[in-house]
């Protein structure tokens, strides 16, 4: 049956055109019930012994997804019109409900009501889209009742009073979510329900949970129409709210409209905004603007304040203080202030599920099984969340997940609901799981559909692979791999051959592997970079490809790795093992003895590695003058080329920065940390890095030349003067002048930043790193060529061709496919013609990459706590950042940063301190003591628990 749908569309020229779209209706769409006598039941998904079939409306799916994910809820029909509406309103919930529907262990069935002849409905005159959708849901529920002929009860689940009323009048069984859950006699499921707003509950009972001296009323959020108008007129400024991880009462909103960050002080000015929300901000009067350095470091006990807004600047007692400062010439300097503001509206919420535990509390008497409790997130940036639970006794010693439902003006805390229990508080596996959940890392086992895409094991290079004309046989090269312990290998090779009396060199780089180099003569060199040919096994549009695209990257925790691709690929098929043939994608260069690239070419290949070395082993070989074997000789020759390549990069302006990377020695049985220290960078690391960088640049040039509008590249934006200001102030305070006019000028300045302290230069470089923006992926069609520039590498073009097993980007699949298409090896997949989808892929890669980084850091913090839990330690630290009540220090030996408090909460009089901005010092008001930026101090480190279930590493001055 054919039905025509017509609608009008306005063209870019302003003309109105009528368009007609054909809508095909069918009568062979099945109901999904295995006991149905009218339908084909071969693909039935509902339970054979179901007594009730649930039909859920859109709002139930949107708001009660945590309940639907519980295995106790089954035999559910999800209508296609509901799925489409959920997709338009919340993509995250849409993906979650699709995952339930595709899970063979769950009894969820998607019914295409919009394409069934008996359930499709036409729009009625004067009917809103929402009313039409509600009517379509009722029609489908009624059809199920008639279609199944009373064999089972069909129940419409809706919290919409009007929809429920109409359903009842039409003879449809309908219930609210809460009513249905109560009928299951599962009190624990009631905890999963989204809580009503505080206007609908007894506020006296709720507020008794945390006694207060005064009632907190937040400012009403502006409606979107007023926000939009205010943004256009420049009254409001839009940006993402980022809450300070060390002080939950201090936040920042990056605003393009004023070209600076707006500081938000206190919960009252944050106005119920969460970290990550897109907000509209109104600037405060300029006399209320504050200098960032005058802000305080929040103490743990601050979070138990009865009002939660004690740092708000509109409170004279609690506002951060700006102290006039006197220069060496006697002139008084006013501290430069930065824009300060308040949130007037939420443009887009970033609410999700949070991990933490309940505030310890006595079991309430006579509560009828329902207890009000406060949930404390492990993330200090998140305010406490009020929940109701019928499982209080079982949850007090557990890490749990809670979702936020609402935050009303009259409520001190947001309201939420319990989602699930993770495990016992303090258990290492539980706390590691928390790290993954908090950073949205998918650690679930790969599905059977994904694993079905893998070739059978044992796998080996076939005769067909060897005879394939697109694949060059490079097994004659002497190949070796060099990589960190526990990682896949990255390989390269270098050989010398006679050719026209010229020196050439080729080095092969493979995905995470380093090929072994062998110099045969001194007449010419060939160097090749070979990356494992993962695209040979991951084909476009397959479940394996879609899974890799969603995961985006592998995640490295202290004690384990969360793979982007299944282990048969990462640890076997695509890993360069000694004396095993493997498929690769090679970049082949002709190079002069001075490491100048004469020419480049790219080919799919077959290689055979003859050795697997760690960075430590490779470095030991190069350092041992007694070793003259081919592998060691090739390592030294390759290192010689790498040094020349590195020097040339630095001459172009590439920055040599530093980061506080921490390395743990882990007990193989208990997985507890045995030792901790700064990660050591060796020449072997730098050698691998140089050839990987060169391969990535070469591939970027190749794919952009072939596909100028759809290449996936990586850029590093040039930092603004404002971003570099903290570094410049620090340098000036210690007598250094840093030229930041270009990356080359900054690199030279950093090279000359030396002092008596051997660690001084590295510390300056760490501070410089923290002033940089993050490098990001992008599609070449979204930006102009000058914006492609990678500031840190001083490279006009860059991408990620290396490490495809770990990184989806070109980082493998995408860049490898682009490169193969540019060589005519394969066709360009259709996704590269969809600019919006390419942008979406880039955004997801950036999101996943950042989350992986944050998860890695959180894992380091967790294991640092475990290591120091029974090891109180005295050590040296450097002052790196000033605050009005203390400063932050960096501990070189352990790569740890944390706050030092100089005053206790509420301390007054002679104990007060102030920040001397010009000299970068924090001084006591009576002038008796001062601390300078980068000063060495002796500290004591000890794990304490200022709040129950929230241990932290406390740093104190000795």
From TrEMBL:
<dbReference type="GO" id="GO:0000177">
    <property type="term" value="C:cytoplasmic exosome (RNase complex)"/>
</dbReference>
<dbReference type="Pfam" id="PF13638">
    <property type="entry name" value="PIN_4"/>
</dbReference>
<dbReference type="InterPro" id="IPR033771">
    <property type="entry name" value="Rrp44_CSD1"/>
</dbReference>
<feature type="domain" description="PIN">
    <location>
        <begin position="52"/>
        <end position="165"/>
    </location>
</feature>
<keyword id="KW-0694">RNA-binding</keyword>
<dbReference type="GO" id="GO:0016075">
    <property type="term" value="P:rRNA catabolic process"/>
</dbReference>
<dbReference type="GO" id="GO:0071031">
    <property type="term" value="P:nuclear mRNA surveillance of mRNA 3'-end processing"/>
</dbReference>
<dbReference type="InterPro" id="IPR029060">
    <property type="entry name" value="PIN-like_dom_sf"/>
</dbReference>
<keyword id="KW-0269">Exonuclease</keyword>
<dbReference type="GO" id="GO:0000176">
    <property type="term" value="C:nuclear exosome (RNase complex)"/>
</dbReference>
<dbReference type="GO" id="GO:0000175">
    <property type="term" value="F:3'-5'-RNA exonuclease activity"/>
</dbReference>
<comment type="similarity">
    <text>Belongs to the RNR ribonuclease family.</text>
</comment>
<protein>
    <recommendedName>
        <fullName>Exosome complex exonuclease RRP44 homolog A</fullName>
    </recommendedName>
</protein>
<dbReference type="InterPro" id="IPR041505">
    <property type="entry name" value="Dis3_CSD2"/>
</dbReference>
<dbReference type="GO" id="GO:0003723">
    <property type="term" value="F:RNA binding"/>
</dbReference>
<feature type="domain" description="RNB">
    <location>
        <begin position="471"/>
        <end position="825"/>
    </location>
</feature>
<dbReference type="InterPro" id="IPR033770">
    <property type="entry name" value="RRP44_S1"/>
</dbReference>
<dbReference type="InterPro" id="IPR050180">
    <property type="entry name" value="RNR_Ribonuclease"/>
</dbReference>
<keyword id="KW-0460">Magnesium</keyword>
<dbReference type="InterPro" id="IPR002716">
    <property type="entry name" value="PIN_dom"/>
</dbReference>
<feature type="region of interest" description="Disordered">
    <location>
        <begin position="301"/>
        <end position="341"/>
    </location>
</feature>
<keyword id="KW-0378">Hydrolase</keyword>
<keyword id="KW-0271">Exosome</keyword>
<dbReference type="Pfam" id="PF17215">
    <property type="entry name" value="Rrp44_S1"/>
</dbReference>
<dbReference type="Pfam" id="PF17216">
    <property type="entry name" value="Rrp44_CSD1"/>
</dbReference>
<keyword id="KW-0540">Nuclease</keyword>
<dbReference type="Pfam" id="PF17849">
    <property type="entry name" value="OB_Dis3"/>
</dbReference>
<dbReference type="Pfam" id="PF00773">
    <property type="entry name" value="RNB"/>
</dbReference>
<dbReference type="GO" id="GO:0004519">
    <property type="term" value="F:endonuclease activity"/>
</dbReference>
<dbReference type="InterPro" id="IPR001900">
    <property type="entry name" value="RNase_II/R"/>
</dbReference>
<dbReference type="InterPro" id="IPR012340">
    <property type="entry name" value="NA-bd_OB-fold"/>
</dbReference>
<feature type="compositionally biased region" description="Polar residues">
    <location>
        <begin position="323"/>
        <end position="338"/>
    </location>
</feature>
């Amino acid at each position: 049956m054919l039905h025509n749908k017509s609608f009008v569309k306005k063209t870019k020229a302003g003309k109105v055109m009528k368009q007609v779209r054909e809508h095909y209706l069918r009568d062979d769409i099945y109901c999904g019930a295995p006991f149905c006598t009218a339908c084909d039941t071969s693909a039935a998904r509902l339970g054979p012994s179901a007594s009730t079939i649930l039909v859920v409306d859109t709002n139930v799916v949107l708001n009660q997804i945590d309940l639907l994910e519980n295995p106790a809820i089954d035999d559910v029909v999800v209508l296609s019109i509901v799925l489409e509406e959920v997709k338009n309103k919340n993509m995250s919930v849409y993906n979650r409900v699709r995952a339930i529907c595709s899970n063979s262990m769950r009894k969820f069935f998607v019914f295409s009501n919009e394409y069934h002849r008996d359930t499709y409905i036409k729009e009625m005159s004067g009917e809103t889209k929402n009313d039409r959708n509600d009517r379509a849901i009722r029609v489908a529920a009624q059809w199920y009742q008639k279609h199944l002929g009373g064999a089972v009860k069909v129940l419409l689940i809706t919290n919409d009073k009007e929809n429920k009323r109409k359903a009842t009048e039409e003879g449809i069984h309908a219930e609210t979510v809460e009513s249905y859950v109560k009928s299951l006699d599962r009190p624990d499921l009631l905890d999963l329900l989204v809580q009503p707003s505080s206007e609908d509950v007894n506020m006296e009972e709720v507020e008794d949970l945390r006694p207060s001296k005064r009632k907190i009323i937040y400012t009403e959020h502006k409606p979107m129409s007023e926000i939009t108008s205010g943004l256009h007129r420049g009254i409001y400024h839009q940006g993402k709210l980022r809450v300070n991880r060390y002080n939950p009462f201090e936040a920042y909103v990056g605003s393009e409209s004023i070209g600076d960050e707006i500081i938000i002080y206190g919960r009252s000015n944050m106005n119920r905004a969460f970290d990550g929300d897109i907000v509209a901000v109104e600037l405060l009067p300029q006399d209320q603007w504050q200098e960032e350095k005058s802000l305080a470091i929040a103490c743990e006990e601050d979070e138990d304040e009865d009002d939660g807004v004690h740092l708000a600047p509109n409170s004279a007692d609690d506002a951060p203080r700006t102290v006039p400062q006197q220069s060496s010439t006697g002139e008084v300097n006013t501290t430069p202030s930065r824009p300060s503001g308040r949130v007037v509206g939420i443009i887009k919420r970033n609410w999700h599920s949070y991990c933490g535990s309940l505030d310890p509390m006595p079991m309430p008497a006579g509560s009828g099984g329902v207890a009000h409790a406060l949930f404390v997130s492990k993330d200090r940036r998140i305010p406490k969340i009020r929940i109701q639970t019928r499982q209080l006794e079982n949850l007090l010693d557990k890490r749990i997940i809670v979702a936020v439902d609402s935050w009303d003006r009259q409520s001190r805390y947001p309201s939420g609901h319990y989602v699930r229990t993770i495990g016992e508080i303090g258990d290492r596996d539980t706390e590691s799981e928390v790290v993954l959940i908090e950073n949205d890392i998918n650690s679930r086992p790969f599905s059977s559909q994904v694993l079905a895409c893998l070739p059978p094991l044992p796998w080996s290079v076939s005769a067909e692979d060897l005879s394939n004309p697109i694949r060059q046989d490079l097994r004659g090269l002497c190949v070796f791999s060099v990589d960190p312990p526990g990682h896949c290998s990255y390989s390269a090779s270098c050989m010398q051959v006679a050719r026209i009396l010229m020196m050439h060199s080729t080095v092969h780089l493979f995905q995470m592997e380093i090929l072994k180099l062998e110099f045969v003569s001194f007449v010419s060199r060939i160097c090749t970079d070979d990356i494992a040919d993962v695209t040979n096994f991951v084909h476009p549009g397959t479940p394996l490809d879609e899974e890799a695209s969603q995961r985006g990257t592998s995640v490295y925790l202290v004690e384990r790795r969360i793979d982007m691709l299944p282990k048969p690929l990462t640890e076997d098929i695509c890993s360069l093992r000694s004396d095993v043939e493997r498929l690769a994608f090679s970049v082949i260069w002709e190079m002069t003895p001075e490491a100048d690239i004469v020419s480049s070419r790219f080919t799919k290949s077959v290689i055979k590695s003859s050795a697997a070395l760690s960075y430590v082993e490779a470095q030991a070989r190069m350092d041992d003058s007694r070793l003259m074997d081919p592998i060691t000789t090739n390592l030294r020759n390759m290192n010689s080329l790498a040094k020349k390549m590195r020097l040339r990069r630095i001459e172009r302006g590439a920055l040599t920065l530093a980061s506080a990377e921490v390395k743990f020695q882990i007990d193989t049985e208990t997985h507890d940390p045995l030792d901790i220290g700064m990660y050591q960078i060796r020449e072997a690391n730098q050698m691998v890095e140089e050839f990987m960088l060169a391969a990535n640049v070469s591939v970027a040039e190749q794919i952009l030349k072939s596909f100028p509008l759809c290449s996936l590249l990586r850029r590093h934006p040039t930092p603004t003067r404002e971003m570099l200001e903290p570094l410049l102030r620090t340098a000036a305070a210690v007598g250094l002048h840093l030229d930041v006019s270009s990356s080359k000028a900054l690199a030279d300045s950093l090279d000359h930043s030396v002092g008596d302290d051997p660690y001084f230069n590295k510390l300056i470089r760490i501070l410089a790193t923290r002033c940089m923006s993050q490098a990001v992926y992008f599609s070449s069609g979204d930006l102009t060529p000058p914006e492609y520039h990678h500031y840190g590498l001083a490279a006009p073009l860059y991408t990620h061709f290396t490490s495809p097993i770990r990184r989806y980007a070109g980082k493998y699949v995408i860049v490898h496919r682009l490169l193969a298409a540019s060589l005519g090896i394969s066709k360009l997949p259709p996704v590269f013609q969809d600019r919006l989808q390419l942008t979406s892929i880039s955004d997801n890669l950036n999101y996943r990459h950042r989350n992986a980084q944050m998860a890695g850091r959180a894992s380091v913090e967790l294991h640092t706590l475990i290591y120091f839990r029974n090891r109180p330690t005295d050590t040296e630290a450097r002052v790196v950042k000033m605050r009005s009540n203390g400063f932050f220090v960096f501990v070189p030996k352990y790569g740890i940063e944390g706050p030092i408090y100089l005053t206790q909460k509420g301390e007054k009089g002679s104990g007060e301190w102030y920040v001397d901005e010009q000299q970068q010092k924090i001084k006591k008001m009576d002038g008796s003591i001062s601390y300078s930026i980068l000063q060495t101090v002796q500290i004591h480190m000890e794990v304490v628990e200022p709040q129950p279930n929230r241990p932290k590493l406390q740093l104190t001055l000795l």
